[in-house]
Write a structure and sequence with these properties.
Elements: E1 5-7, E2 10-15, E3 18-19, H1 21-35, E4 39-44, H2 50-63, E5 67-73, H3 76-85, E6 90-94, E7 103-109, H4 118-125, E8 143-145, H5 148-158, H6 163-169, E9 172-176, H7 186-192, E10 196-200, H8 220-228, E11 233-237, E12 244-247, H9 257-270, E13 275-278, H10 284-291, E14 296-299, H11 303-313, E15 317-320, E16 324-326, H12 336-350, H13 354-360, E17 365-372, H14 378-388, E18 393-395, E19 400-403, E20 407-413, E21 419-426, H15 429-447
Parallel strand pairs: 2-3, 4-5, 4-6, 5-8, 9-10, 9-11, 13-14, 13-15
Antiparallel strand pairs: 1-2, 2-7, 6-7, 11-12, 15-16, 17-21, 18-19, 19-20, 20-21
Helix pairs in contact: 1-2, 1-4, 3-5, 6-12, 9-10, 9-12
C-alpha cells in the first residue's frame, strides 16, 4: 500500500514507496497546468533525497514550458517570500517538514506565495489525468540558479526590528537546526543580530541526528546543552524552518504554544489589531490579546486556513501553536526567521531572561490523544458529543471545539485514518489529563 498522502499543502510520502519518480512527474505536471505559463520558484530543505526529487521536478517543469528559478537549499518561508518578490506564478518547496529522513514532499504554493486554498487544490487535482502534454524542443522553459533568494528574505526580515537594540544585548544562543535548511541560514542570521552562536546539529549533511519534530522529548540533548553552555536561550527550528521552538536559559521548554503567544504580545504592544490562530491553539493568545484590548479569531487547523481568515479580518499577527508565526508585514506564511527576530527584540526591550518571560505569560497545559474507532462512524460520534454539550460554547468549523470556563476540548476526525484526535487545555497539567481522559471515556461509551 502506497504511503502517498495528498492534501491542500501538497503531496508527501516515503521515498521509493509512495513518493517515486512517476508520482513526482504526475503531480508536477498537473501543478504546472494549474499555474499556467510563467516562472516557478523551487527550493528544498537539504534532506538527502532532495536532489533526486529536485532534478525530476525541474525537468518536468521545463518540459511543460515553465521557467524555473532554483533558489537552492533554503527555508520554506524563503520560497513563499520569493514567489511574490520575483513575480512568479507559483513555487514548490521540496520538504517533508518535521517528518523523518525517509520522507519527502512537494509543498505547493499559489501565485500569491501562499499555500493553495482547497478550491485551488481541487482545480489542480482535476488536471491529474489530462496533464501529460509537454512542449517541443524549442518551447521548453529555462532554468535560472538564483543565489540571491535567501539574502532577499534575510534582508527584509531584519528590517522588521531594531537590529541595533538586539545587537546591544549580545545574546548567547544555542542553535539547533537538526542538520536541515536552517544550517544554511540561521548561524549567520543570528551573528548578523550580534548573537554569540553555539551550534548544535548545524551540519549541512541533510541527515537528521534525531527525530526532527521540535518537541520536548526530541530535544533532551539540546536542553542539557543550554545549561552546560550557560546560554541565554536555545533556538530550535524544524528541517524547513517554518516552526520556531525555544528553550529557556534554565534549559527548560519555553513550550511551543508560547512562541505565538509571545509574538502576539510583542506585536500588540506596538500596534493594536486583530489576531488569528487555529482552533487547537492555546487560550493564552486570547489572554494577551484581551489585555491589549484586541480580539482573537480562530480558524480551522492548517496554515492556509489561518491565512485566509487573517486576510478577512485584517489581522496584524497570526499563527499556530506548533511554533508557527505568521506576520503579514513581510508575507503570509509561517516563518521561524520572523519568529526569531520578534522574540529577540521582545527580550531586548523587556531586558529579561526568557525564563522570566515564560513565568509572566498565562499558564495553560495541553494534553493530546487519539482513539482508534475501527468501523465506527467518526461523524456520528462527534455529532453525539455535540448534542450532549449543546448548551456550551460550540465551534464546528473544524471538527468540534467546546469551550468551558475552566478548559476547552477539540475533537477532530482524521481524513486518512479511522481515528479521532482530541486536544484538551486547562490551567494545570493534571486537569488537562483528567479532562482528556474524561472525554475519551465518553467516546468509548458511545462506541459500544
Amino acid at each position: 500500500m502506497s504511503t502517498l498522502m495528498v492534501s491542500v499543502s501538497g503531496i508527501r510520502g516515503l521515498v521509493g514507496d509512495g513518493l517515486d519518480p512517476n508520482t513526482i512527474v504526475k503531480y508536477t505536471s498537473a501543478y504546472a497546468d494549474f499555474c499556467g505559463f510563467g516562472k516557478i520558484v523551487v527550493g528544498s530543505d537539504g534532506r538527502i533525497s532532495g536532489n533526486m526529487v529536485k532534478h525530476i521536478l525541474i525537468g518536468t517543469l521545463l518540459a511543460k514550458g515553465n521557467d524555473v528559478i532554483d533558489i537552492g537549499i533554503c527555508p520554506t518561508p524563503t520560497v513563499l517570500y520569493n514567489v511574490t518578490k520575483l513575480g512568479a506564478v507559483g513555487g514548490i518547496q521540496i520538504s517533508a517538514s518535521h517528518n523523518p529522513n525517509q520522507w519527502n514532499a512537494l509543498k505547493l504554493l499559489n501565485s500569491k506565495g501562499e499555500f493553495m486554498t482547497p478550491e485551488e487544490n481541487k482545480i489542480m487535482l482535476d488536471k491529474l489525468e489530462t496533464s501529460n502534454n509537454y512542449k517541443k524542443w524549442n518551447e521548453l522553459g529555462n532554468l535560472t540558479l538564483y543565489d540571491e533568494g535567501l539574502q532577499n528574505h534575510i534582508k527584509n526580515v531584519l528590517k522588521l526590528v531594531d537590529v541595533d537594540l538586539i545587537k546591544s544585548k549580545k545574546f548567547r544562543v544555542v542553535l539547533d537546526c537538526v542538520n536541515g535548511a536552517g544550517s544554511y541560514v540561521m548561524p549567520q542570521f543570528l551573528k548578523d543580530l550580534g548573537c554569540e552562536v553555539i551550534k548544535l546539529n548545524c551540519g549541512k549533511t541533510g541527515i537528521f541526528p534525531r527525530l526532527p519534530e521540535p518537541i520536548p522529548e526530541n530535544l533532551i540533548e539540546t536542553m542539557k546543552f543550554v545549561k552546560e553552555q550557560n546560554a541565554d536561550l536555545a533556538i530550535v527550528v524544524d528541517p524547513d524552518v517554518d516552526r520556531l521552538v525555544l528553550i529557556t536559559d534554565k534549559g527548560e521548554p519555553f513550550i511551543e504554544e508560547n512562541t505565538i503567544t509571545l509574538a502576539t504580545k510583542h506585536i500588540l504592544s506596538k500596534v493594536k489589531g486583530n489576531v488569528v490562530v487555529n482552533l487547537s491553539t492555546s487560550r493564552s493568545v486570547e489572554d494577551v490579546a484581551s489585555a491589549e484590548g484586541c480580539k482573537v479569531f480562530r480558524a480551522p487547523v492548517g496554515e492556509a486556513n489561518v491565512v485566509k481568515l487573517m486576510k478577512e479580518v485584517n489581522a496584524v499577527i497570526g499563527g499556530e501553536g506548533s511554533g508557527g508565526v505568521i506576520y503579514p508585514e513581510l508575507h503570509y506564511g509561517r516563518d521561524a526567521l520572523v519568529g526569531t527576530v520578534l522574540t529577540l527584540e521582545h527580550l531586548a526591550q523587556q531586558n529579561k531572561k526568557l525564563s522570566q518571560i515564560k513565568d509572566e505569560l498565562p499558564k495553560y497545559f495541553i494534553a493530546k490523544k487519539k482513539i482508534e474507532l475501527g468501523n465506527v462512524n467518526p461523524d456520528k460520534i462527534v455529532e453525539q458529543i455535540k448534542e450532549k454539550y449543546r448548551n456550551e460554547k460550540i465551534n464546528t468549523d473544524d471538527g468540534l471545539r467546546i469551550d468551558f470556563e475552566s478548559h476547552w476540548v477539540h475533537f477532530r476526525k482524521s481524513n486518512t485514518e479511522p481515528i479521532i484526535r482530541c486536544i484538551a487545555e486547562a490551567k494545570t497539567e493534571e486537569e488537562a489529563n483528567l479532562f482528556i481522559d474524561k472525554y475519551f471515556g465518553e467516546i468509548k461509551e458511545l462506541m459500544k
